[in-house]
Amino acid sequence: MKINYLHITRSRLPRLRQAIQLVYLCYSILLGIQFCQFYEWALNSQGVPPVRPAGIEAFLPISALLALKPLFLHGTYDPIHPAGLTLLLAITVSAFFFRKGFCGWVCPVGTVSNVLEKLSRNLHCKRKISPWIKYPLNSVKYLILAFFFYVIFVQMDSKQINSFLFSPYNMTADARMLHFFLSPGKVLLIVLATLFVLSVFIKNFWCRFVCPYGLFLGLFAVLGPVQIQRSKDDCTQCGKCDQNCPGGIHVSNSETIRSCECIGCLECVSSCPTACVKPGISHTYSLPCLLIPIGTISVLLIAWGIAVSTGYWHSQISVEMFTKFYKMMSP
Ligand code: SF4
Ligand code: SF4
Ligand code: SF4
After folding, report:
1. Ligand 3, atom 3: nearest CA belongs to which residue?
2. Under 8 Å between Cβ of 229 and 256
3. Ligand 3 center to residue 237 CA distance, Å?
4. Mean pLDDT of 271-276
5. Considering every ligand atom, which ligand is closest to the CA of 103?
6. Distance between CA atoms of 49 and 290, rounded to whole angstroms?
7. For residue 143, what are the contacts with CB-CB under 8 A and spacing of at least 6?
8. 1 pLDDT more than 50
9. Cα 246 to ligand 1 centre (Å)
10. How many Å apart are CA 265 and CA 285, to the nearest integer?
11. Residue 198, class by beta-carbon neighbours within 10 Å (0-12 exposed, 13-18 middle, 19+ buried)?
């Protein structure tokens, strides 16, 4: 008997996704707690220093984007936040091969966004947005990403990039982010409250309309080999796939979903009563559903393993240097 280890009942996909998202959310919270302990130790320098969790650099995507330029131009790997750069590269590779599985299955911000979406569904307060609002809103993330690309890849030369990467500002970016969220100012609170309200009324507001990181990954996913395929012969036009798609994609309108909004969450697959939506390379070559989450997580783990064993995971800044700069920036 042939056993397909990548097979799972379609109805179990949402539960599996929630479980994986929960694991990564808990892991992110754990990273945050470990970093707080390291930061507190650095300010007081008492007792044995706890390990600085390098994974916290996943939350410094702008620093990682800046580090791409010296990597491509001179082959130099960022020694300040190497884990951040490793994760950006790994997530981009995974997006090319396995759609935006990172967004659909791993990213903790995406998880929170999904929770808000479920909340809005249960409260029946989800609103449809008209194309007049949708298209200008959609352009926001393109403008943000274009701005970053223009500044980093056009305006800043290698010298300016290096001065930023080696500046005390960048070295303490993790601690600044911690302060930013632990002692939020009025502006941040207003922004967060606005995003919360918008996310309750508009499906996945942050991920669909604002996040430039998701768009960056989407541009690679569009070029990749794996897409969501719909067989129109078996489709009854029930519309369940459209209702459940967190990316707001009209799945029932297309035969191949090539949108950069598709996060590979497989909600369309699990909700389709006729099983006519599947991931695949073409209509004739469908793939096991689990390939998207397993492929995505495998790329992340492989990249982590290679980076740790080759010395490209932990920062080359010494604990003493971190301590010195954290003390300098501490309010
Ligand atoms: S769009 Fe951005 S915030 Fe949303 S899941 Fe993707 S990377 Fe995370
Ligand atoms: S098209 Fe399917 S896999 Fe893609 S975001 Fe929508 S529901 Fe998820
Ligand atoms: S859920 Fe399946 S049958 Fe219903 S509209 Fe979507 S693809 Fe067609």
Report:
1. 235
2. yes
3. 5
4. 92
5. 1
6. 41
7. none
8. no
9. 12
10. 19
11. middle
Give 55's DSSP letter: G
Residue 305's contacts (CB-CB under 8 Å, 6 or more residues apart) are none
HSE-CB for 60 with a 13 A CA cutoff: 29
Q: Is the CB of 168 under 6 A from ligand 3?
A: no
Integer CA distances (angstroms), 309 to 80, 86, 305, in order: 17, 13, 6
Which residue has 């029946």 as its token pair?
Answer: 124
Q: Is the CB of 236 under 6 A from ligand 3?
A: yes
Q: Is the per-residue pLDDT at 6 higher than 70?
A: no
The closest residue, in CA terms, to atom 2 on ligand 2 is 268
Between the CA of residue 248 and those of 34, 202, 251, what are the distances in Å? 36, 10, 9
In the chain, % helix, strand, coil (3-state, to 5) comes to 65, 5, 30
Distance 99 CA to ligand 2 centre (A): 10
Instruction: Please give the model's pTM, rounded to 2 decimal places.
Output: 0.92
| CB of 240 closer than 6 angstroms to any ligand 3 atom | yes
Tell me, in angstroms, the distance from the centre of ligand 3 to residue 258's CA: 17
Q: Which atom of ligand 2 is nearest to the CA of 271?
A: 7
3-6 own/partner pairs: CB under 8 Å, 24+ apart: 4/288, 6/288, 6/289, 6/290, 6/291, 6/294
